[in-house]
Design brief:
single chain, about 300 residues, alpha/beta, 3-stranded antiparallel β-sheet, 15 strands, about 40% helix, about 20% strand
Length: about 300
Amino acid sequence: MELRQLRYFVAVAEELSFARAAERLRIAGPSLSQQIMALERDLGTRLFDRDRRTVTLTPAGSLLLPRTRALLGQADDLRRTATGLSGTGPVRLGYVNWRPPDLEQRAAGIAQLLVDPWVLPSHAQAARVADSSIDLAICWVPAQTLADDELEARLLGADRLFAISTGTDVGPVRAAETTVLIDADETSWSSWNRWALAMAEETGATALRVSEGGVTGEAFFDHVRRLRRPVINNPKSQTAPVPADLVTRPVHRPAPYWTWSLVARRGEPRPVVVAVLEALTRTVDRLCLDDPQAWLSPEDPHRPV
């Protein structure tokens, strides 16, 4: 039995949906199911009743849920006490547009986490960690940047990108049959443009340069309508509603992924920062990224060797 399995149990119990819990935890659905089944085997009891439509707690699951929450709270208290972190000051964290919904909850037993409201592009947030303006950043970062700026990156999450298209076909589309947009604003979209150019080069997708601000929002949807072919969505608009006249299509052969790293300074001297780094990334599952059909940029530090 592992603490991460207990955290998975609590997430599924709160969401009453394996799909929503997997999205919240930023792990693959099959991996979550496997971990819950492993926990049930260790405990010798079934925690959930589930069918194709519903998930409910069993009587045993309902009984164990409050005790599991208490145990996780005790584990956080123990970690804080063991590392002597009380009164060491806050940990400052910046992000681009995504962060785990339970970010503050995961760090609550370790340190005061100050989430910086200054939302900046990935390369800018990584630079702020390097110059000590902030302690941690959630961003996409190339491996060379880590080496040059003496940073380290832990996997925090991954988005499988899809395509937006005209028409009614919602079936899978090959990566080579898609278009990926390159924004003219190189300052704001440096990381995305690097990722997009690499995807086009390695998968055969068509790279198309568009005007400033054209890779997200209404301008992006207008490009889809004009091109009349599947266009890869941008991670900044991963959860944005799709207009009724357009459809989403999964991309395969290969499936493109955008990763989110938790970036810290290499050799970070503050134990509290190291402890938060460990706590936020300890239960992250990279199963989906190890799939042979997954595509990550050659610059991605989490790309399988």
